[in-house]
């Protein structure tokens, strides 16, 4: 297929190849494509640091048989990612052969610039927006990893078109009962490290194939597309057998990469943006920047600079701020500065407003329920849609239960900064199995699964007592992501050694620095739970906590297409926000 | 008629699938269109038990067929008779069906052509027999009142017009119907028997479905398996052709 000449609104071949250079994609190829209308690749086409993989490389010439009535396609191998360019089916019906792009443009349909279709979700021209299809993957949906059960002949991945384009019809005898999770050539093997982390073999059932379909940044129902709109995908991406899980959501992160969210600088926004961009590599697509106990001036200065923001190539989305303190217990303040602790005994909610300022950007507030008039405060916060969490507290079980009845729904880092479990008064920990919670509701609880802050046995006890409420958090400090060695962070000297941070020169822990994907892997290995539950603890459960489970933390139809591509050992291969690649691992890039 | 007997359900399915593959390759498809079965009326398209969902989940989503080439009777059309007539017309315009694949019911029906259907019938609206309703109840949570009582279906005559017919019969509960279909005469009470008069029919079944047949019949057709297996030898013509 020859390249098309350029036309208004549609960058020509030269412009496009300049933007996506060989250097970025690391291979030597020239762009070739068939039609640009509605295909959504405007300028550039590079998302984040990785190649977007939109352009087709030197596929086999004349590779699509003219007799095939399916949409014409080019296939290019880009190491693990295989990209297929498919012409919109309406184009196939109206024309054949190369050069049809011009005819399409002449028919009056505006080519959609890429930036445009990304920013509008469900806006006008929705039906014309390009459809992406991620094939050869295992999707986490409905608490199950939907596997590609229909094993291809001899384990060869990819689909076999009806037109027999690459067909080897008549599967050999060896294929009987050969049901493998689709594996791309060179795609990773199942990790058998700890034994428990190994995935079970795929179920022996046909009809289990699930692909992820995305349009306009949302997950699409392909059946409706097929029968009502009579369309196929405009672009197919082969995932090489990877797991597709909803993007991780971190509801407690104090900073990272040298940035401290609680520091009142003039440009808090750029610090948040830096962290947002760097945590994409950990698989986090949405987060709640957390502020520790601070004087009111800090809140008044910092809060307005952290607005709620959608994610994208620039970084993970900000769901709102998590305010941890200052209305917490003196005894259990942990590392929070004592001087700035406060109470709301005098004016209840007005004290809260006076301390924080406007609450527009606030999503979660951690407080100690044993403080006087906490019930009024909890009710007022809950009425504004703010999630109330119990933590840094010496409350007993009864006080905690009453707080939950007033509207609290979360526990901040279970076991840490609260009274230990006691068999006659389990304290806040007892909420996990309390029978005095409002009907139909259960408590969520954050856990730092870095192997240090919680003993694995304690992790297992909590998990077994109440698996559906477990929310993985990093509670990361600014030392996150800094390499081994000594670093100066604000007033502190911190020494980083692997996954642990100490106050320099001591053995005192200085906060957690395990990235979210490390926490997920550690959690899986420590508890021996299913892969599905481990992934949900980092995605679905935080979304449920924040009441966002229709849009985030899930890959059901209509949800935002924020997801991560993981290999069998749950290492992040690629991160997508709104169906757009925003980060890609080095290995996959070559 | 060819009666292909395999050991079990999986092997029978696989044989049938390979055969269809080979037929498609030999046909060298270009503008071909295949038609699928009738649809129970009254269910919205996105109901999990609707024929659309069934065909999508079990067939269409695994292949890259152009959606415009997939035709399913729409049970929600306002004028059902016109819908059926349009369907027949589409078949004719496509040049007729090359291979019709279907199963049979325990009462020997093909598609939803219940016992008593005319053997020269066309696509139409049909009332379902109690047997069929009972058989389908499991898809509606066992609630008989939820099972549709009427269905749009291709007629026996429509299927007879296909150039080749393949019927899949598995399970012991279909054994009697298979016996009636091939060892007794052509009878509108067992509508599958109409295919005795079709020039090219293949019945693919498993061992359990042959339980009511004569040993002589079964032995005869099993003896022909070496011939039948040649029909599913892998063909490479498509790849070489490219």
UniProtKB/TrEMBL annotation, chain A:
Its EC number is 3.5.1.25. Its cofactor is a divalent metal cation. Keywords: Carbohydrate metabolism, Hydrolase, Metal-binding. It holds the Pfam family Amidohydro_1. SUPFAM superfamilies: Composite domain of metallo-dependent hydrolases (SSF51338), Metallo-dependent hydrolases (SSF51556). It catalyses: N-acetyl-D-glucosamine 6-phosphate + H2O = D-glucosamine 6-phosphate + acetate. CDD domains: NagA. NCBIfam families: nagA (TIGR00221). This is N-acetylglucosamine-6-phosphate deacetylase. It comes from Canis lupus familiaris.
Automatic annotation (TrEMBL), chain B:
Its EC number is 3.5.99.6. One of its GO terms (cellular component) is cytoplasm. Pathway: Nucleotide-sugar biosynthesis; UDP-N-acetyl-alpha-D-glucosamine biosynthesis; alpha-D-glucosamine 6-phosphate from D-fructose 6-phosphate: step 1/1. It comes from the Eukaryota. One of its GO terms (molecular function) is glucosamine-6-phosphate deaminase activity. SUPFAM superfamilies: NagB/RpiA/CoA transferase-like. Residues 43-198 form the Glucosamine/galactosamine-6-phosphate isomerase domain. The keyword Hydrolase applies. It holds the Pfam family Glucosamine_iso. Belongs to the glucosamine/galactosamine-6-phosphate isomerase family. Homohexamer. PANTHER family: GLUCOSAMINE-6-PHOSPHATE ISOMERASE (PTHR11280), GLUCOSAMINE-6-PHOSPHATE ISOMERASE 2 (PTHR11280:SF9). This is Glucosamine-6-phosphate isomerase. The lineage of its organism: Eukaryota, Metazoa, Chordata, Craniata, Vertebrata. The gene is GNPDA2.
């Amino acid at each position: 297929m020859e390249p098309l000449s350029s036309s208004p609104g549609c960058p020509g071949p030269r412009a496009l190849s300049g933007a996506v250079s060989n250097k970025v994609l690391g291979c030597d190829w020239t762009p070739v494509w068939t039609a640009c209308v509605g295909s959504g690749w405007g300028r550039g086409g590079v998302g984040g640091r990785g190649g977007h993989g939109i352009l087709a490389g030197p596929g086999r010439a004349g590779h699509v048989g003219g007799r095939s009535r399916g949409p014409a396609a080019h296939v290019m191998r880009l190491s693990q990612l295989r990209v297929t360019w498919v012409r919109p089916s309406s184009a196939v019906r109206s024309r054949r052969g190369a050069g049809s792009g011009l005819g399409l443009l002449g028919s009056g349909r505006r080519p959609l610039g890429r930036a445009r279709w990304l920013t509008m979700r469900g806006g006008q021209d929705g039906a014309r927006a390009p459809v992406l299809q991620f094939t050869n993957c295992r999707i986490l949906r409905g608490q199950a990893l939907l596997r590609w059960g229909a094993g291809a002949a001899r384990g060869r991945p990819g689909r076999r078109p009806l037109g027999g384009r690459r067909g080897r019809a008549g599967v050999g005898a060896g294929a009987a009962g050969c049901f493998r999770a689709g594996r791309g050539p060179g795609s990773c093997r199942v990790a058998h490290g700890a034994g428990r982390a190994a995935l079970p073999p795929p179920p022996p059932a046909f009809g289990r194939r699930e692909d992820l379909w995305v349009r306009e940044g949302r997950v699409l129902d392909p059946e409706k597309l097929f029968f009502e709109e009579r369309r196929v995908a405009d672009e197919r991406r082969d995932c090489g057998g990877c797991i597709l899980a909803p993007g991780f959501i971190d509801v407690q992160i104090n900073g990272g990469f040298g940035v401290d969210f609680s520091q009142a600088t003039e440009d808090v926004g750029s610090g948040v943006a830096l962290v947002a961009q760097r945590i994409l590599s950990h698989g986090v697509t949405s987060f709640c920047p957390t502020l520790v106990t601070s004087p009111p001036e800090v809140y008044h200065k910092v809060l307005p600079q952290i607005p709620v923001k959608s994610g994208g190539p620039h970084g993970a989305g900000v769901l709102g701020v998590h305010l941890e303190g200052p209305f917490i217990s003196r005894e259990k303040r942990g590392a929070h500065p004592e001087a700035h602790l406060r109470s709301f005994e005098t004016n209840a909610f007005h004290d809260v407003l006076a301390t924080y300022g406007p609450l527009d950007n606030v999503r979660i507030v951690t407080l100690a329920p044993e403080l006087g008039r906490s019930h009024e405060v909890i009710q007022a916060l809950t009425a504004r849609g703010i999630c109330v969490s119990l933590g840094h507290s010496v409350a007993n079980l009864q006080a905690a239960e009453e707080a939950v009845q007033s509207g609290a729904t979360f526990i901040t880092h279970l076991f840490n900064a609260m009274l230990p479990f006691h068999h006659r008064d389990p304290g806040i920990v007892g909420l996990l199995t309390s029978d005095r919670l409002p009907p139909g509701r259960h408590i969520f609880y954050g856990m730092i699964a870095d192997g240090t802050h919680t003993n694995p046995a304690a992790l297992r006890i909590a998990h077994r007592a109440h698996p559906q409420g477990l929310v993985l958090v990093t509670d990361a400090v600014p030392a996150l992501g800094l390499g081994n060695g000594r670093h100066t962070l604000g007033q502190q000297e911190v020494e980083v050694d692997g996954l642990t941070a100490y106050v320099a020169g001591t053995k005192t822990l200085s906060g957690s620095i395990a990235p979210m994907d490390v926490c997920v892997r550690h959690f899986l290995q420590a508890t021996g739970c299913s892969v599905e539950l481990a992934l949900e603890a980092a995605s679905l459960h935080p979304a449920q906590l924040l009441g966002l489970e229709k849009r985030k933390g899930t890959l059901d139809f209509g949800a935002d297409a924020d997801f991560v591509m993981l290999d069998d050992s749950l290492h992040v291969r690629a991160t997508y926000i709104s169906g757009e690649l925003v980060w890609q691992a080095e290995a996959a890039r070559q | 008629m060819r009666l292909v007997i395999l050991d079990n359900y999986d092997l029978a399915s696989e044989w049938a699938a390979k055969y269809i593959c080979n037929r498609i390759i030999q046909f060298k498809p270009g503008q071909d269109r295949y038609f699928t079965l009738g649809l129970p009326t009254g269910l919205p398209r996105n109901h999990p038990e609707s024929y659309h969902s069934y065909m999508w989940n079990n067939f269409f989503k695994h292949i890259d067929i152009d959606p415009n080439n997939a035709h399913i009777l729409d049970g929600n059309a306002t004028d059902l008779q016109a819908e059926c007539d349009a369907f027949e017309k589409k078949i004719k315009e496509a040049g007729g069906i090359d291979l019709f694949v279907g199963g049979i019911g325990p009462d020997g029906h093909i598609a939803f052509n219940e016992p008593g259907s005319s053997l020269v019938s066309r696509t139409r609206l049909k009332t379902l027999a109690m047997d069929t309703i009972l058989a389908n109840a499991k898809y509606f949570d066992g609630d008989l009142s939820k099972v549709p009582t009427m269905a749009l279906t291709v007629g026996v005559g429509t299927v007879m017009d296909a150039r080749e017919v393949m019927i899949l019969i598995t399970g012991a509960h279909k054994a009697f119907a298979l016996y009636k279909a091939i060892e007794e005469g052509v009878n509108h009470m067992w509508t599958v028997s109409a295919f005795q008069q079709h020039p090219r029919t293949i019945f693919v079944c498993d061992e359990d479905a042959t339980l009511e047949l004569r040993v002589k019949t079964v032995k005869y057709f099993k003896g022909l398996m070496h011939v039948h297996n040649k029909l599913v030898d892998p063909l490479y013509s498509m790849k070489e052709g490219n």
